[in-house]
Specification:
single chain; two-stranded parallel ribbon; 256 residues; five-stranded parallel sheet; alpha/beta; 9 helices; globular
Length: 256
């Protein structure tokens, strides 16, 4: 309006998605507050608002997704893993999972994303590999003690991010590659990996490496596990069921 590109257009607003906080979508009094704040803002702007406080579903049956990750994806002691929640929401045509605990680009456990990408390639037909439209590499905890260069492109590490992405582009030519950093922990002592310096350094390596290689980085993934209540209290490292729910809802919303 006021000299803008659409002087004769009507202004519509529509809230969708999952609120960025622990737990389920807004309900009850919380939903009413959302409704009041949103409608007040729309009234001020003389637009028209539509409010939906339930989860939105986007049907993406043309998408075939491959998830590659470490124990944060593998699940552990949870009944529903984050990628299952994500896929219930976005409803892809097919999804595949190739994960194992201890994986990374330069894992101190000696296991690598590239190993499980190769495992998938060797176990599937060319047609299946070429049908993959979206490939998620998620993790980070096992790379926390590695250097940035070792993670991204060091010639001394044949499993680095660059090699991994090159392999993916060779065998999954139709896939968009996404990289996410899941490595927050609730550790407060007894393990150097709780140090925020390591977390920030490795998150930067994942984020900047993804952009350098032309992949998509899942923005905000490095802070998703920001609350100690999201972790299994037996080890303070792996997400509990609440943590997996939170990851799944966030990843679905981000992807949509």
């Amino acid at each position: 309006r006021d000299g803008g590109a659409y002087p004769n257009g009507r202004l519509h607003f529509h809230t969708v998605g999952i609120p960025f906080h622990i737990g389920q979508p807004h309900t009850g009094a919380e939903a009413q507050r959302t409704d009041i704040v949103f409608r007040s803002g729309i009234s001020f702007l003389h637009g028209k608002g539509y409010i939906r406080n339930t989860r939105s579903f986007v049907f993406q049956n043309d998408r075939n997704i491959l998830f590659v990750g470490d124990s944060y994806t593998n699940g552990g002691n949870v009944t529903k893993k984050w990628y299952e929640t994500m896929c219930e929401t976005i409803n892809p045509g097919h999804y595949y999972v190739s994960t194992e605990g201890g994986e990374g680009f330069c894992s101190s456990a000696g296991k690598h994303y590239l190993d499980w990408i190769n495992d998938f390639i060797n176990s599937q037909t060319t047609a299946v590999c070429q049908s993959i439209t979206d490939l998620f590499i998620t993790g980070g905890y096992n790379d926390l003690l590695a250097s940035v260069s070792d993670i991204q492109s060091s010639s001394s590490n044949p499993y680095n991010m660059q090699k991994c992405v090159e392999r993916c582009r060779q065998y999954f030519p139709n896939a968009t590659i996404y990289i996410a950093f899941f490595a927050r922990t609730a550790l407060v002592k007894g393990n150097a990996r709780h140090n925020i310096i390591y977390i920030e350094r490795t998150a930067t390596a994942y984020r900047e490496g993804a952009r350098w290689l032309g992949c998509k980085y899942v923005t905000g993934s490095e802070i998703m596990l920001h609350d100690y209540r999201l972790f299994d209290q037996t080890d303070n490292v792996h997400p509990n069921q609440l943590g997996h729910n939170y990851l799944g809802h966030y990843m679905a919303q981000w992807f949509m």
